[in-house]
Amino acid sequence: MNKFYAVGTQAETQVLHDIDLSIQKGEFAALIGPSGSGKSTLLNIIGLLDRPTSGKLYLINKETSHMDDAELTRLRGEAIGFVFQAHYLLSAFSATENVMMPMLMQKGRPNTAMRERAQALLAQVGLAQWQDSMVGNMSGGQQQRVAIARALALNPPLILADEPTGNLDTKSTDAIFELMRKVNTENGTTFLMVTHNMELARRCDRIIELVDGRLVPSAGVPV
Ligand code: ADP
Ligand code: MG
Fold this sequence. Notes:
By secondary structure, the protein is an alpha/beta fold. The chain has a single domain (3-215), classed as Rossmann fold (3-Layer(aba) Sandwich), CATH 3.40.50. It is built from 7 helices and 10 strands. It has helices at residues 39-46, 69-79, 95-107, 112-124, 140-151, 170-187, 198-202, and strands at 3-5, 13-16, 28-32, 58-59, 62-63, 80-84, 158-162, 190-194, 206-211, 214-215. The strands form 3 sheets. The chain has a 6-stranded mixed β-sheet with strand order 6-7-8-3-9-10. The chain is globular.
C-alpha cells in the first residue's frame, strides 16, 4: 500500500511506501516512529478515514478499495472505535451522553438500553461515580477514560488509538494503558496504538515501527 499527498501538484509527496502489514485479531500492537514518519496517516487509512493512493486494505476480511463513501462509513461504524489524543468529547454533555453518542448516530433516538449500556461501559472504565458529570469538569485522565468507553460503545472488533496517553501524567498513562489491555484481554478487541512511550510499546504484543513512511523490517516480530 502507498500513500501520496497532493497528487498531481508540485507539492506531491509520498508519505507511505510499500506498506505490507497485517494485524491479527486480538493483537495489541504498538505503532511507533519519529514525528512525521506517517503514523497518523497509516492509522487514518486503516480507520477508513483516508484512502491509500494505491494498494489494498482488508478490514475484517473485507477488501475496501472499491467501496464507496457510504459503504466505508458503514464498515467504519461496525468495525472501528477511535481514541484520539484530542478526544473530541462534547464538554458540555455528561459522560453518559458522550458514550451514548455513537449509539445515537447509529439508531437515531435515545432509549433506556443505550443509557444503561453507556453506564455499564463507564463502570468498566472506572467512572461509575462520574456518569452524570459534565465532561468539561473532568481531569485529562478521566476524559480519556470517557473516550475509551465511547470507543467501546458499539463493541467494535478493532480500536485505533493515536497517542491516547500523549497528554497524561505517568500515573494516568499507566492506568489508561492497563485499561486498554484489560479490554483487549477480556473482550478480545484488537488494538493498534500509536505511542512515543517506549516503555508502553514494550508492553504490547508487538511493535510496528515506521521511519520515513516505511516499515522497519523487524516489524512483525513479537517482542
Ligand atoms: P506522524 O503521525 O508520524 O507524525 P503524519 O502521518 O501525521 O506523521 O504525517 C506524515 C507526513 O505526511 C508528514 O510529512 C506530514 O507533513 C505529511 N502530511 C500529513 N497530512 C498531510 C496532508 N493532509 N497533506 C499533505 N501532507 C500531509
Ligand atoms: Mg501523528
